[in-house]
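Subject: design request, 243 residues
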């Protein structure tokens, strides 16, 4: 599910924010939104709402609270500001990446997709944190699904900073040049060299296209074994730079 999480990049949070130390309860949700969930007003964590219902219920609430981003949740956990509470799965604002983190924010903001015409999002799931004892692992849940052991925290942002994002697309020109060079030296050149020394006379002139395609195919298959490491991105002097 998360095989395309790269490229590795640094996130730097400079905005001040508050995060609820435990998952939001039924009573807190009623106080915050004025609406009781399933008529309940207890101190148990809210476990009846889908991610879509959470977003809708928070529209117009003072302070613009929302579920935390992955980065905000991780920072709070690192500083010991949050505890597990009574839920196993926590809803976050981010959406699971489909083709890597190209275009993702690097300043702690949640990564939410652009809304298409008609108000429909391209992403139909939310990233989650799944508690396993005192540790957590990453997961995802559909926007329209609620789970008995799923809850959420809320954050409030007090100051906004200059937005910082990853490049929107990978360096395609560099990738094409690299793969072209590797295809020639790993696949095509060895194929013709083998044919020159081992094949029958006239084979190269008659079957040069087959030899070239075979070399290209071999080069593509070699990607399962090795390719140069994808570059990382770090923040230096307030700017995102490639390492």
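Subject: RE: design request

Done. Sequence follows.
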């Amino acid at each position: 599910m998360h095989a395309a999480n790269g490229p590795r990049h640094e996130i730097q949070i400079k905005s001040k924010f508050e995060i609820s130390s435990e998952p939001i309860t039924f009573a807190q949700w009623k106080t915050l939104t004025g609406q009781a969930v399933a008529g309940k007003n207890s101190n148990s964590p809210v476990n009846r709402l889908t991610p879509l219902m959470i977003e809708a219920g928070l529209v117009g609430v003072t302070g613009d609270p929302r579920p935390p981003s992955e980065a905000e949740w991780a920072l709070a956990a690192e500083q010991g500001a949050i505890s597990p509470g009574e839920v196993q799965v926590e809803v976050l604002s981010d959406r699971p990446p489909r083709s890597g983190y190209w275009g993702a924010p690097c300043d702690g903001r949640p990564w939410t997709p652009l809304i298409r015409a008609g108000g429909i999002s391209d992403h139909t799931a939310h990233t989650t944190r799944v508690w396993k004892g005192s540790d957590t692992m990453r997961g995802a849940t559909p926007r329209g699904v609620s789970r008995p052991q799923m809850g959420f925290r809320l954050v409030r942002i007090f100051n906004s900073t200059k937005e910082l994002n990853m490049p929107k697309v990978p360096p395609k020109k560099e990738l094409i040049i690299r793969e072209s060079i590797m295809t020639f030296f790993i696949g095509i050149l060895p194929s013709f060299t083998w044919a020159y020394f081992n094949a029958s006379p006239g084979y190269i002139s008659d079957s040069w296209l087959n030899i070239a395609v075979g070399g290209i195919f071999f080069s593509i298959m070699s990607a399962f074994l090795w390719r140069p490491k994808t570059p990382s991105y770090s923040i230096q002097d307030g700017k995102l730079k490639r390492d």
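The first strand starts at residue 17 and ends at 19.
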